[in-house]
Amino acid sequence: MSKVRVGVIGCGYWGPNLIRNFFGCPKTELAAICDANPVRLEAVGRTYGSAKLVNSVDQLLETGVEAVAIATPVSTHHSLASRCLEAGLHVLVEKPLASTTQEAQSLVDLAARKQQVLMVDHTYLFNPAVRRIKELVDYGELGDLYYVDSIRINLGLFQHDVNVIWDLAPHDLSIVDSVLDYQARSISAWGCAHANTDIEDIAYVNVDYGDHMMANFHVNWLSPVKIRQMIFAGSRKSLIFNDLNTTEQIKVYDRGIHVGATDEARRKAQVDYRSGDIWSPHIEPQEALALVVAHFADCIRDGKTPLSSGQLGLRVVRLLEAATRSIRAQGGRVVLTNGSGPWNGNGNDHSRENGSGQRLEDRPRRSLGKKRRDPLLR
Ligand SMILES: NC(=O)c1ccc[n+]([C@@H]2O[C@H](COP(=O)([O-])OP(=O)(O)OC[C@H]3O[C@@H](n4cnc5c(N)ncnc54)[C@H](O)[C@@H]3O)[C@@H](O)[C@H]2O)c1
Asked: Can you give the pLDDT at residue 337?
């Protein structure tokens, strides 16, 4: 099968990683590199002599590439991606897909109309540890999911066009979207800006997925230490994913509680504690970005829908947008009307408005009759 001729736009912090992987992938040919900054272009491009170096997307379109990868600031994703899709190219866009839900939706629609592949580089979906977590969840190893608790903090690279949620949370939100078969119902976020008055550099995001499953995400550019950790807690077992632990990235804990089967036992919260083995599955090390670029090439040649599709990217952008709206409303819960049903409240009453400004109190509560079997009684 012929190699996919690819051009990469953006030679800043992340673009060179894409360039290196497209250059090394046997399924792709790195045909062109584009950056508006000639100094960056020259510095990165000189390593890849066979690729044509260009300063604009207009020049890139003249090189005859059939696909592009876009690694420019988020605010430029929509205009560059739509330009390339209109020109008949397949497009891989860096996370997050676009700056607004409306922009992301228009890219999804345009790709569908033009029958081009639109993929988002949610790199973690290709991380072998995340693939293993998905297997464990799918096999029922954890039982019913209770919650996800995620911390992604360090002294981060401050962005000028997006806040810390748009920069870091796409990783965790895309992982939860891919690993769990849940649609978010509502979201609440708190954040604070220190370096720039308009751009939050620390945030706490809470997402209600319904069925007693909730997730918390702490993202922060101001932490003195780097932590990359997610807890997936279930009724049978729980696991901790520590992305910085190179030898034991995942640890599965056979720890939890049993609650008495009677109503009386539950009313009195009579629980027995279970403390069993801790084990760490073997994870074959592989660079996730190498899998991203190979998957992009496969989707183009085989006409497949990418694992990190435009639709998934759109769902992530919808959450990012709602989280930022919630911050502006001092943590007010924002209902996601695309969810799998009306808002269920999740037991708290911090709600104020939904995505269209409708007060939550006016919305119907979800019927409890449709709830899954109580995971505590397994
Ligand atoms: N997948 C990941 O793990 C990961 C990690 C870091 C960043 N990213 C994403 O990568 C993207 C880029 O981030 P970055 O930190 O590399 O940004 P950056 O600012 O370091 O680099 C962007 C580059 O794009 C160039 N550029 C901007 N507009 C252009 C245009 N219209 N035409 C041609 N070149 C243009 C700039 O000159 C610059 O060299 C963002 O979407 C970010 O979220 C992804």
From this structure: 79
Q: What is the mean pLDDT of residues 229-239?
A: 97
Percent of the chain past pLDDT 70, that is, above it, reads 89
74 Cβ inside 6 Å of ligand 1:
yes
* 309 in Cβ contact with 316 (< 8 Å): no
Beta bridge partners of 34: 9, 54
How far apart CA 348 and CA 370 sit, in angstroms, is: 19
Residue 14's φ and ψ, nearest 5 degrees, are -95, -35
Per-residue pLDDT reduced to its tens digit, 156-172 = 888 888 999 999 999 99
How many angstroms is it from 322 CA to the middle of ligand 1?
23
**For ligand 1, atom 5, which residue shows the shortest CA distance?**
14
Q: Which helix (H) or strand (E) holds 84?
A: helix 74-86
Q: For residue 108, give the amino acid letter.
A: V
Q: How far is CA 365 from each of CA 332, 343, 358, rounded to the nearest angstrom?
A: 18, 6, 14
CATH 3.90.1170.50 fits 4-123+290-309, yes or no: no
What is the pLDDT, as a whole number, of residue 52? 97
CATH tag for 125-288+317-335 (out of 3.30.360.10, 3.40.50.200, 3.40.50.300, 3.40.50.1820): 3.30.360.10
Q: pLDDT tens digits, residue range 91-142?
A: 999 999 999 999 999 999 999 999 999 999 999 999 999 999 999 999 999 9
CA of 330 to the centre of ligand 1 (A): 30
Residue ranges per domain, the chain? 4-123+290-309, 125-288+317-335
Which residues fall within 8 angstroms of residue 308, CB to CB, at 6 or more apart?
119, 120, 121, 122, 125, 126, 174, 178, 292
Write down the pTM of the prediction.
0.89
Calpha distance 87→77 (Å, rounded): 15
Identify the three-state secondary structure at position 277.
strand
pLDDT of residue 195 exceeding 50: yes
Cα dihedral sign, 137-141-147-148: negative
